[in-house]
Amino acid sequence: MLLVGGCTATTEFGRVYRVRGAYKSTTQAQRFGERSSGGILGKRRGTTHPLATMTTRRPPQPTRRSLLAAGLLGWLQSVGAGPAAAAPSAQPWARWAAHDNANASRVDHSTWSAFLTRHLKTDAHGINRVSYDLVSRAERAQLATYIKHLERADVDHLSRDEQRAFWINLYNALTVATVMDHYPVASIRDIAISPGWFSRGPWGAKLVQVAGEALSLDDIEHRILRPFWRDPRLHYALNCAALGCPNLAKDAYEAATSEAMLDAAAHAFVNHPRGARIDRGRLFVSSIYVWYADDFGTSDTAIVNHIKHYAGPDLLGRLAMIDQISGDDYNWVLNDEATAHAG
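The structure corresponding to this sequence follows.
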């Protein structure tokens, strides 16, 4: 393991958490060989079971060799390859600013809802998983047709509420379709189709054309949804096919139901251990709150207040005397229903 100026990098096996004042690790990830990113302000893309326990170990003193390697790691992080590279900022793409709130037309998302009904299962830990291995050729074709249907939509003339549902559903359906195109994989990060020598995952690849514009998953999230809606609850709606991610919703988002669904998704994630958990009086959170601190509030206090807003009575009571975050964690294992009962 390399320790680089407050960042951490792991070997191919094992898991490292960045914890304020200490480094904690576990080797429970050996079966998958995932990597974990840690740290207060890292990048969204780290490792094993979301309920894994942690054991403390003292960090080794850096050697000349490790410092040289750290320099290489720092360069890799500067081009987006390292585990602690900054999350993309929310930069509005002006081309997608148009909307028409007087337009009452709706986009049909029934195909996506039907797919979710058939292939989304909740495991024993409360995590929604996709039965990628059970999707038939005909169902894959139906999903592809649905995505084409969204590509042809007159999105510029939809209402803002309808657009929000449109982009969330497109992001999630496109993520599932991309995983199926490369299945089986241990993690979505292994789908290395994004441009750039050191890129990981599919997020930077142009996967669809909407209204004639080629779009990537990053475009949808960071150049459309985040900048135009400025709503932290969107992070609970967008699913990146990882166990550490907020659950993929069991129904398609609709303009009329989106507000209630976003609140429900926020409440479900905050009150699940992979969202927020308290260990010996210290708060540990999902790395989502660190990677996207600008969306949740740039201070620990603001993020904790956001969590308190959606916390149930038990968690809220335990948070009463807490206003700081002690560490963060994320699990990049694929949300595959086929591995839900693996030992």
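DSSP finds eleven helices and twelve strands in the chain.
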